[in-house]
């Protein structure tokens, strides 16, 4: 099978995961596990057979190699500390695939060969999003099936960033999909923030605001802001989430009464529980507790997967908390470097605005890192690491705006 067909197979399976997660689950579970590891094996094969990665910036290659080796260590620690079926399942079905999907970087760096991925998204994925959206609006109004539409369409952010370089009919399609994803699932606030944020970045392109000086300033500001806010929260008890939503309800209360408030603060208590859990369990702050490490929760005590788990929840909805709890400050630092090294080259070593837009998005993703981005093997992460890979491709960065437009005319 050609590599391009292998990549489309992976993307197709990931789309299946995104849809079935909120509709009809894949049965039996062993089929789901088999599909995950089919993707894992293909990604490992593509990584080992990659030639283009040799031309990536040396500093990124070194950091990414350390990231992979370090996560192997975290997985080994997780296996050593595992005590029951759920521990092992979390290591092999959640954590390991969430690390392996980063190998999509090896796909992204093949910029010139990735046209088939973009064409598959526009000609296959997005029409399915529209069909599902219409069906759910007419026949399944008010059900959680809406989540399948927004999750399947989540990679739309990648194409929003490419709007200045797309054909007019593709631009109309992207705008329509964006509006539909927001309309059918307004409760997914991170998706709303991402779509609006990427739209603002595109406006910056049209206003000629994508200067290296401005983008580097934004990068430094965004890099420091979450760290300062967390330090402030720990030392002084200030709550940035509550300050941003001063009129918000307490999500813990609305959940217990069976309701859901789209303006609710759903993050503060997660930080509180994870930090307290790490303190109570004496989790090593530097290297974390391993891939199987969960956190003590009282809010989710009714959702525990088994009585043997003892009120522990394996993952939160926040990537930063998951990484800190499992792989410590070292894990967080390595993920920070992967994001910002790629963003640096995309912004400072490029001749086109699409590269700068990708770099700006990667900077923005550092904020999302502290808000959501849970450990998943899904379409969001596929296109996220695809973006990082493209930013490492020198041929892509050296291309002019006109050359990028010509490239996307082939869609």
Any overview of this molecule?
The protein has 411 residues and is an all-alpha fold. The chain has a domain at 3-208 and 378-408. The protein contains 19 helices and two strands. α1 packs antiparallel against α2 and α3 runs antiparallel to α4 (85-100). The two termini are 23 Å apart. The model is unreliable at 247-260 (pLDDT under 50).
Q: Classify the beta-strand content into a percent band.
A: under 5%
Distance between the termini: 23 Å
Tell how many strands the DSSP assignment holds. 2
Overall mean confidence score, pLDDT? 90
Radius of gyration: 21 Å
Write out the strand line-up for the largest beta sheet, numbering strands in chain order: 1-2
Could you name the key traits of this structure?
single chain, 411 residues, mainly alpha, two-stranded antiparallel ribbon, 19 helices, 2 strands
Which helices and strands appear, and what pairs or packs with what?
Layout lengths: L2 H18 L8 H20 L9 H24 L3 H16 L4 H4 L6 H25 L6 H7 L3 H6 L6 H17 L4 H18 L5 H25 L3 H5 L6 H6 L11 H13 L14 E2 L15 E2 L5 H30 L4 H16 L10 H13 L2 H5 L2 H8 L3
Antiparallel strand pairs: 1-2
Helix pairs in contact: 1-2, 1-6, 1-7, 3-4, 3-15, 6-7, 6-9, 7-9, 10-16, 11-15, 11-16, 15-16, 16-17
């Amino acid at each position: 099978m050609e590599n391009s067909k292998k990549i489309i197979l992976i993307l197709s399976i990931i789309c299946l995961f995104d849809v079935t997660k909120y509709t009809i689950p894949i049965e039996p579970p062993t089929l789901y596990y088999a599909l995950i590891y089919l993707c894992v094996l293909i990604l490992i094969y593509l990584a080992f057979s990659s030639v283009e990665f040799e031309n990536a910036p040396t500093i990124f290659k070194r950091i990414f190699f350390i990231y992979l080796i370090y996560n192997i260590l975290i997985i080994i620690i997780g296996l050593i500390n595992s005590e029951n079926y759920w521990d092992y399942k979390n290591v092999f079905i959640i954590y390991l695939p969430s690390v392996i999907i980063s190998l999509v970087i090896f796909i992204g760096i093949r910029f010139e060969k990735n046209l088939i991925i973009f064409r598959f998204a526009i000609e296959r994925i997005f029409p399915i999003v529209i069909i599902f959206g219409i069906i759910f609006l007419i026949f399944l109004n008010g059900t959680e099936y809406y989540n399948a539409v927004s999750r399947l369409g989540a990679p739309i952010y990648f194409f929003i960033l490419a709007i200045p370089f797309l054909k007019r009919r593709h631009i109309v399609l992207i705008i329509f999909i964006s509006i539909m994803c927001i309309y059918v699932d307004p409760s997914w606030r991170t998706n709303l923030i991402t779509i609006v944020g990427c739209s603002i970045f595109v406006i910056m392109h049209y206003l000629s605001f994508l200067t290296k000086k401005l983008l580097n300033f934004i990068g430094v500001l965004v890099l420091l802001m979450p760290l300062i806010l967390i330090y402030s929260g720990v030392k002084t008890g200030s709550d940035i989430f509550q300050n941003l939503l001063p009129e918000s309800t307490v999500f813990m209360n609305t959940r217990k009464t069976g309701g859901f408030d789209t303006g609710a603060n759903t993050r503060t208590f997660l930080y509180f529980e994870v930090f307290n859990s790490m303190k109570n369990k004496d989790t090593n702050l530097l290297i974390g507790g391993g891939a199987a490490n969960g956190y003590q929760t009282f809010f989710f005590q009714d959702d525990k997967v088994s009585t043997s788990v003892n009120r522990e929840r394996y993952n939160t909805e926040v990537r930063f908390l998951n990484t800190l709890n499992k792989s410590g400050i070292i894990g967080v630092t390595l993920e920070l470097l992967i994001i910002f090294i790629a963003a640096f080259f995309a912004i400072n070593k490029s001749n086109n605005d699409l590269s700068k837009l990708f770099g700006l998005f990667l900077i923005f993703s550092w904020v999302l890192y502290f808000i959501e981005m849970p450990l998943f093997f899904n379409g969001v992460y596929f296109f996220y690491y695809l973006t990082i890979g493209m930013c490492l491709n020198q041929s892509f960065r050296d291309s002019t705006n006109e050359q990028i437009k010509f490239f996307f005319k082939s869609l």
